[in-house]
Design goal:
The chain is α+β, with helices and mostly antiparallel strands and about 375 residues long. It has 2 domains: about 5-150, 3-Layer(aba) Sandwich (Aminopeptidase); about 155-365, Cathepsin B, Chain A. It is about 30% helix and about 25% strand. It has 11 helices and 15 strands. The chain has helices spanning about 15-25, 30-40, 85-100, 115-125, 170-185, 190-200, 215-225, 250-265, 280-285, 300, 345-350, and strands spanning about 5-10, 45-50, 55-65, 70-75, 105-110, 125-130, 140-150, 155-160, 230-235, 270-275, 290-295, 305-315, 320-325, 340, 360-365. Strands 8, 9, 10, 11, 12, 13, 14 and 15 form an 8-stranded mixed beta sheet that branches. Helix 5 crosses helix 6 (about 190-200), helix 6 (about 190-200) crosses helix 7 (about 215-225) and helix 7 (about 215-225) packs parallel to helix 8 (about 250-265). The longest helix has 20 residues, at about 250-265. The N and C termini lie far apart (about 65 Å). About 45% of the residues are buried.
Length: about 375
């Protein structure tokens, strides 16, 4: 085979890419329509490998908005080009392109019985960190692998945290709290019944539209009632979330609910601290074996500016890592676990609304740190 080159895919490559896709995979294939989508998508990198003007391989990476995570979505090499290092060259080019787009990590999933691909990934520094059962159309299992594609010196605090997907559009708070509690007490099994119980205890009743979200003090109270020491940290003493509500009646209700949460917190020994929430404090809480929830704005992820609770799972010199209980159409659960968000981006995300609300819930099975 003559020398090979790697370049961005163009519209002229759709047919050879589609033919390669169908020859390389028995199932889980990309359609022409999806190939055309990823050719134009701003959050995708689609590269082809060419030899003698023939497409002999391709690779597709998805870049997740608001995070420093890239995901290898597909990698295929033609039969005649296998064993010549084409896959390694494509993957290396994808890593470089993703790194230039500011991504720090590449993740992928690979069939557990695909020993050739696993050997390739391991030779390039990918390591298994989890497994999916019954993942592919043929019901085979998948390994989850990850590699840091940009080096950094890290001071890493991590907490092994099970992931749970919220079952409604308004229960991100309960879902995040269940993940946090389960990280400290594995006997807690997140499920929809517990999720809705917590929402009823913690809801603000109303929000800008639709059902109410969850108040930080309400979430702290829910944790306290389940045997955890808990504190709600908020950077304002004003009632939360009423800025986007136009109805005066709804504002009155939300203000009353806010007042009740403060009253119940005093009665049930839940600390309510009016203070700024810094990344240094989050790092200290994690180092003290606490679990932490933080409210973010989703604008940098989906452009909707919605308040959204996530569970913080780790922190290092570059990023905070979160479990996001929600997924979008291009994500799988793997993409929402230990999501790397740069410190700079997180600083912007974690200030919600025009009033720049910053709030966190800290829980522990041990006494909370005195420096809280």
């Amino acid at each position: 085979m003559s020398s090979i080159s790697i370049r961005p895919a163009s519209s002229d490559d759709i047919e050879p890419l589609f033919a390669l896709e169908n020859n390389a995979f028995r199932g889980d294939r990309l359609s022409r329509r999806r190939l055309q989508h990823w050719l134009k998508a701003a959050n995708g990198i689609l590269l082809v490998c060419e030899s003698s003007d023939q497409v002999v391989g391709y690779g597709l990476v998805i870049l997740h908005k608001g995070t420093r995570l890239a995901r290898l979505y597909s990698l295929a090499v033609s039969a005649e080009a296998r064993g010549l290092g084409v896959g390694k060259k494509i993957l290396s080019a994808l890593e470089q392109a993703s790194s230039k787009q500011g991504r720090l990590f590449m993740r992928l999933e690979v069939a557990k019985n695909n020993h050739v691909a696993i050997k390739l990934y391991e030779s390039m520094g990918y390591r298994v960190f989890d497994e999916y059962t019954d993942y592919y159309e043929d019901h085979s299992d998948a390994l989850r692998m990850q590699k840091r594609i940009r080096s950094a010196d890290t001071a890493f605090y991590t907490k092994q945290t099970p992931w749970y997907q919220q079952t409604t559009e308004f229960t991100c708070g309960p879902a995040s709290l269940m993940m946090a509690m389960a990280s400290l007490q594995p006997s807690i099994k997140p499920d929809a019944m517990l999720e809705l119980d917590i929402w009823r205890e913690a809801t603000t009743i109303f929000m800008t539209s639709g059902h109410g979200g969850c108040h930080p003090i309400g979430l702290a109270l829910a944790a306290r009632r389940r045997g955890f020491n808990a504190a709600a940290c908020i950077n304002t003493a004003a009632p939360l979330f009423i800025e986007g509500v136009r109805s005066e009646h709804k504002k009155e209700i939300m203000t009353l609910v806010d007042r009740q949460f403060h009253q119940h917190a005093q009665e049930e020994h839940v600390a309510c601290l009016i203070q700024d929430i810094t990344q240094e404090k989050i790092q200290g809480w994690l180092a003290a074996n606490c679990a932490v929830l933080v409210l973010i704005s989703t604008y940098r992820m989906d452009g909707k500016k919605a308040p959204h609770w996530v569970a913080v799972t780790a922190i290092d010199d570059d990023c905070l890592y979160v479990h996001d209980p929600d997924t979008d159409k291009d994500q799988i659960p793997m993409d929402c676990q230990y999501m790397p968000i740069s410190r700079e981006d997180f600083s912007k995300m974690s200030a919600y609304g025009s009033e720049r609300i910053r709030t966190a819930v800290v829980i522990s099975k041990d006494p909370l740190p005195e420096t809280l």
